[in-house]
Design goal:
The chain is built from 21 helices and twelve strands. By secondary structure, the protein is α/β, with parallel strands linked by helices. Pfam families: Methyltr_RsmB-F, NusB.
Length: 486
């Protein structure tokens, strides 16, 4: 299966109901997204947005393309095992382009309940269009074999072929085995080890779109729900500034609220709680200086900026990447007058500017494995390896050391990661406390519970707060708060 590659831009998507060769445009877009992710290391959400804009799909076709791409990426581990069993060959022996055609086909058969003839015929035509035409018979045969057996039987075959119970569960729930073990350890640290399968299942359910209603919007969540109810907006979830969109285009729903530009934003409610835990840990005083040390792409910075403006504080937003710094500038447009955007390595003194040792609140939203957002970033689970963790945890520690040096006496430091992995959460915090004896940990659980709109079940003996998709409907955000006592 070594046919020439398609053109560099991917499959040609034509306007109208069908693409070149009789393939639906939605399937061509979905294939291009999978190819962008695998061959160009693209982020699925960015690749999808780009391909949808290029294809100019209507709402219905765009929704189909989104489900195809996200579903195939989310279910890739399980689908690959089923393909291997049906084809009687290792997945790595299947040409990369054909693999993606098959993944899309299997998702239609098992994840979308598409009629067999439609899923198989479209996949064969897609194979003919984008990959090795000589392999169309192979694609046809594999998919028809898969269609003849129900999901329960395929899962039973996956378990029978697995080398261990962990490998079986990992394949059946479409998670790498090392991720499964890390999630189990994190849950077990809270006495919730029996919730592993519930968490793995939650990772495979597309989340609803979360919206942040920032201070300065001129309305409260109840008013926003009344104004945007026809657009699917509901004032629900744990964040006191959070909204949830049941379906539809978030930009259209935001526009329906007619709020000032930048005051309603797409943002997971776990991220909202992480930023609010810092700003509302105790009442703020006018003139306070706040620092977001790793600000890009700016979602949490936008919350900090809105809160700062309301109390008369200022924010320094530091980001090492110029592209991400531009995203921060765009994110804080509603409160730009209280924000200074800087571009430095967060570990260097220059990131603190002239206010070294004088920040009243510092947020370190550190680069991490992203294992807490697997439902939102379906490709992330296949990108990271356990060998990535030592470098990430070293960076997290260095950023926290710099942040601790930027705190004024009595200042508060928030350490946030979108990962529940213990090596990136409690281990990092415990190391920081050992290195900086002038820091003491605050009760983040109590603070998050108090600011939340609904009761939050936060378990474990640690003072830090760990959110979970299966329990709280948020990304698995970790939040620790520390105060400088001397």
């Amino acid at each position: 299966m070594n046919a020439p590659r398609p053109p560099a831009g991917g499959a040609t998507v034509l306007r109208g109901g069908r693409g070149d060769g009789g393939v639906s445009r939605s399937r061509l877009v979905a294939y291009d997204v999978l190819r962008d992710v695998e061959e160009r290391d693209a982020y699925a959400n960015l690749a999808l947005a780009s391909r949808l804009a290029e294809a100019r799909l209507d709402a219905r076709d765009a929704a189909l393309a989104t489900e195809l791409a996200a579903g195939a990426l989310r279910g890739r581990g399980r689908y690959d095992r089923i393909i291997e069993l049906a084809a009687e060959r290792d997945i790595d022996r299947v040409d990369a382009r054909t693999r993606n055609v098959l993944r899309l086909g299997v998702h239609q058969l098992l994840g979308m309940r598409t009629a067999t003839h439609a899923a198989v015929n479209e996949s064969v035509e897609l194979q003919r269009r984008v990959a090795n035409r000589a392999a169309t018979g192979f694609v046809n045969g594999v998919l028809r074999t898969i269609a003849r057996t129900d999901e329960a039987e395929w899962d039973a075959r996956i378990e029978a072929a697995a080398g261990s119970p962990d490998e079986a569960l990992a394949a059946r729930t479409s998670h790498p085995a090392w991720v499964l073990r890390a999630l189990r350890a994190a849950l077990a640290s809270e006495g919730r080890g029996d919730e592993l399968e519930a968490l793995l299942s939650a990772d495979n359910v597309p989340p609803r779109v979360g919206l942040a209603l920032l201070p300065g919007s001129g309305m409260d969540p109840g008013t926003a729900e009344a104004l945007g109810g026809d657009s699917g907006i509901a004032a629900t979830g744990p964040s006191p500034i959070g909204l949830e969109l049941s379906a539809g285009d978030p930009m259209r729903a935001i526009a329906a609220l007619d709020a000032p530009d930048g005051t309603v934003r797409v943002q997971d409610q776990g991220s909202q709680l992480a930023a609010l835990a810092l700003t509302r840990a105790r009442p703020a005083a006018p003139g306070e200086r706040w620092l977001d040390l790793c600000a890009g792409p700016g979602g949490k910075t936008a919350v900090l900026a809105a809160e700062a403006r309301a109390v008369g504080a200022t924010v320094r937003a530091n980001e090492i990447s110029e592209h991400r710094a531009e995203l921060v500038r765009g994110a804080v447009i509603a409160n730009a007058e209280v924000v200074e955007v800087a571009r430095h390595d967060g570990r260097e003194a220059a990131a603190l500017g002239a206010a070294e040792g004088r920040f009243d609140r510092v947020l370190v939203d550190a680069p991490c494995s992203g294992l807490g957002a697997l439902r939102r970033r379906p490709e992330a689970r296949w990108r990271k390896q356990p060998t990535d963790l030592p470098g990430l945890t070293a960076l997290q520690g260095e950023l926290l050391d710099a942040a601790a040096g930027g705190l004024a006496p009595g200042g508060i430091l928030a350490y946030v990661t979108c990962s529940p992995h213990l090596a990136e959460t409690r281990v990092v915090v415990n190391g920081l406390l050992k290195r900086h004896t002038g820091l003491r940990e605050l009760d983040a659980k109590a603070i998050v519970r108090e600011l939340a709109r609904v009761p939050l079940d936060l378990a474990g003996e640690a003072l830090s707060a760990q959110l979970w998709p299966h329990r709280h409907g948020t990304d698995a955000m970790f939040i620790a708060l520390l105060e400088k006592t001397s």
